[in-house]
Design a protein that fits this description.
Among the domains are: 10-122, no CATH class; 132-221, K homology (KH) domain (GMP Synthetase, Chain A, domain 3, 2-Layer Sandwich); 230-270, no CATH class; 273-338, no CATH class. 36% of the residues lie in helices and 16% in strands. It has helices spanning 98-106, 124-134, 137-150, 182-192, 203-210, 221-224, 234-239, 246-249, 264-271, 315-326, 339-342, 360-417, 421-424, 442-456; strands spanning 51-56, 61-66, 78-83, 86-94, 118-121, 156-162, 168-174, 195-200, 280-283, 286-294, 299-303, 310-314. It has a 5-stranded antiparallel sheet with strand order 2-1-4-3-5. The protein is extended. It starts with 50 loop residues before the first strand and ends in a 17-residue tail after the last helix.
């Protein structure tokens, strides 16, 4: 959650989320609280709170210290405070009036004379010594577990926290019962050369110190905001109609999840409207046994001995059957609620355009259809072009034939102007008429005209020569 390095950097520019240590979400370190009184002006400096809250080991442990020097500290500043026969370095988590509310929540008093004091702002040397001693913690955990195993003690060392100056070490352990660790303390003191303090914690506190991600996808509640742990039992799961599955209901600590208690009060309030003592209902077919209660739909589910089918009954029907049973009568049927009829059908919209509904197959079909339409459009154009070329060639042929006909017509005209022997002898031949045609052979004249028309062109006919067939006078 949040960013890292949220304190004020060199040059006055904040790192991380740029909030200068005043995160609104309070998620930069564990067990953090939002200071919603941070920008509140202080009317009287004498009555202002002189206690600040300091966190150690990234928020796993917090304590209150009195600021006797009256120095101004911001959230995220590293300061040196009093420790056990030495000093410790921590991070300022809260300042101002919000500290009084946190002290009241934890039962601490502001005027407690045993409250430790703030020494100074942490120097580079203090931070360097603290980092060196913090680097010894993983090795100390491994060695301390081996020593506890050699002494055959029924305990588990969860975490070792070193003081900043290296003079004290706190060993957090888990045990089911009381453990006699008098001999263990002597071995630890001689092994690590520090003052030893033993603290017993539970499985939930251990999970809060280690941290992790829950099944919901968020950080564990015990490591982010949950301070007090309430007992959780399987009755909370039964009230919420959850299956008693130890694997699903257990958290990282191996105990039942704390979130089972979050909605328990809501379920208990809703179950007050359900009828009581209705676990068994008597009907004509036998006794109907209660299986579960649905508080969202106000239904109670029953089963009959002759089948495994579950019948949902309304609260009014259950009360009515219970009243009849008290009177000594058994109804014929349970009259369950028809869930299929009461289920509303959603109307699909006529046109829905959502991302992902267009597949590659539909795109391929559209592409093929578009190409086919283009082909169909291009084919008639090609046919028309071929027809136009054919007609143009045919027209050129006809034009050539027409030119040939005109040339032959001019030659015939020139020949018609000259006297022919037939015309000369026409006067002496009585069988010819005035036009120079023989009356007895009409087919010859038609054939001659047809040959002339074919030579002149298919669609054009040569006009008759007025000088042809006339007599020369």
């Amino acid at each position: 959650m949040g960013c890292s390095g949220c304190g004020t950097a060199t040059g006055g520019k904040p790192n991380g989320c740029k909030s200068n240590g005043g995160c609104s979400s309070g998620g930069c370190n564990r067990m953090n609280a939002y200071d919603w009184l941070r920008n509140l002006p202080i009317a009287d400096l004498d009555s202002a709170c002189k206690v600040i809250e300091v966190s150690f080991s990234q928020g796993t442990r917090k304590d209150f210290f009195r600021n006797t020097t009256l120095q101004h500290f911001e959230k995220g500043d590293l300061i040196a405070v009093e420790g056990v026969s030495g000093f410790d370095v921590g991070e300022v988590s809260l300042t101002g009036e919000i500290v009084r509310l946190q002290m009241k929540k934890r039962g601490a008093k502001e005027d407690n004379p045993e409250m430790k004091k703030v020494l100074r702002r942490a120097t580079d040397r203090d931070i360097e010594v603290r980092n060196q001693n913090k680097a010894r913690e993983p090795e100390a955990v491994i060695r301390s577990r081996a020593i506890a195993k050699q002494l055959r003690l029924d305990m588990k060392i969860s975490q070792v926290e070193m003081q900043a100056d290296g003079r004290k070490a706190t060993f957090f352990y888990i045990a089911d019962g009381r453990v006699d660790f008098r001999e263990l303390i002597k071995v630890y003191a001689s092994e690590f050369k520090v003052k030893v303090e033993m603290r017993q914690i539970g499985a939930r506190q251990e999970a809060g110190k280690v941290g992790g991600i829950g099944s919901c996808g968020r950080e564990l509640c015990c490591s982010t905001w949950l301070t007090d742990f309430k007992s959780v039992n399987t009755a909370a799961a039964r009230y919420q109609n959850l299956s008693i599955n130890q694997t699903k209901l257990s958290g990282q600590c191996g105990r039942l999840k704390c979130c089972l208690n979050y909605e328990l009060d809501t379920y208990l309030d809703a179950l007050q409207h359900f009828p009581e003592n209705c676990d068994v209902l008597q009907v004509a077919k036998g006794n109907a046994f209660l299986i579960k209660k649905d508080i969202f739909k106000n239904l109670m589910w029953y089963t009959l001995p002759d089948s495994n089918k579950q019948y949902p009954l309304s609260l009014e029907r259950v009360r009515k059957i219970k009243t009849l049973n008290q009177q000594g009568t058994r109804p014929e049927e349970l009259e369950p609620v028809d869930l299929a009829a009461s289920k509303t059908t959603e109307k699909e919209p006529e046109m829905v355009e959502l991302v992902g509904q267009i597949s590659l197959r539909t795109l391929e079909k559209a592409e093929k259809k578009k190409k086919q339409q283009q082909r169909e459009k291009s084919q008639p154009n090609r046919n028309q072009g071929q027809r136009g070329q054919g007609q143009g060639q045919q027209g050129q042929g006809q034009q050539g034939q027409g030119n040939k006909g005109q040339q032959q017509g001019q030659q015939n005209k020139q020949q018609g102007n000259q006297p022919r022997p037939q015309q000369r002898s026409q006067q002496n031949n009585p069988n010819r008429n005035q036009q120079g045609q023989r009356p007895n052979n009409p087919g010859r004249q038609q054939g001659g005209n047809q040959n002339r028309n074919q030579q002149g062109g298919n669609n054009q006919q040569k006009p008759n020569n007025p000088n042809q067939g006339k007599e020369n006078q």
